[in-house]
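Continuing the batch. This is chain 6 of the set; chains 1 through 5 are on the previous pages. Same settings as before, nothing changed between runs. Recording input and output for traceability.
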Amino acid sequence: MIGDRTVNVFYDEIMLGHNPEVDLPFMPSRVEKRVRSILQGLDFKWSYPEHPGRISAIKEYLDENPVAGVQFRSGAPAATYDQLARVHTTSYLDHIFSLDGKRAWLDKDTTAVSPDSIKAATAAAGNAIAAVESVVKGECESAFALIRPPGHHAEPVRARGFCLLNNVAIAAAHAQAKLGCEKILIIDWDAHHGNGTQDIFWADPDVLFFDTHCAAPFYPGSGHLEEIGDGLGEGYTINVPLPETAGDVAFEKVFREILMPAADYFEPDLVLVSAGFDPHRNDMALNLTYDGFKVLTGIVQAIADKHCDGRLALVLEGGYSLSSLSRGVHAVLEVLAGGEVPEVHEIGVPEAAEAAEFHRSAFSDDEE
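Output for chain 6:
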């Protein structure tokens, strides 16, 4: 029953300060010239899609439709330089921090910062750390970091895909360094491949990285089936590229037949989820429904219950349709708080069965 389990949701208005506006001037650079040429070549007006309204819309929806057992938390300290340096190079961090208070393009894939972006990014990473600490210390049964900018495309030396700092990787590294979690399972169900997270843990046998995503050439074009890690980490990266029309049934099959056996083999001390909501059928790709997100949440929760006393923290990644983003987060929180997990079917099949039952008597001579 919803409310049987406690969930801490971490949110801070500081993260609304990240707001690149492409009509305003940015620091002159080669990257800016490249981005400007790309934007000028479009036949429509482009605006920065990763905007503050993403998390404010979720917060507003959750306030209007509260979930029993969900508690909001704010005021988490920003991630420190040392915490960030566990997964990012110092040269990259020095460059990022030098941009505090400025407007600049960081990558030709249109990743940018505004004057308050660095404060927002370190707050996002800090809230991801706080979410992990809350579950490891037993303050709640699961946690959700409602944060932005997102993180899973951020590489050790590069901002990409609207991501500045790799929030889930920073939280995982903190759990290993300070919270006694030796083996961590990271699950990424965003529509886009988590190339940055994969890069950070590519050769690490203590982090099992599992990623479902829309297959290349969908951005960022990585995450092929054969990408399984290297060195000591060979076999500890699992990529499952899917067609853009995949849907609930395909996702459930992947999670039950690939993720669950892998988790049983790995036996994690902590489960983290890069939770993107752009796989929803009204968003970018992969055709998931709200029930589909509930099923994935139920499977992930069962893995955490089985292997690590329920220690489970989710970190927001993508999702650009404000309605499906808000309702998707709400659906996930319902399951985390103890709600029932529905059955999923191939899209349209239940409706077809209902129609067949309704019309069947018209083609039968049997009297009821």
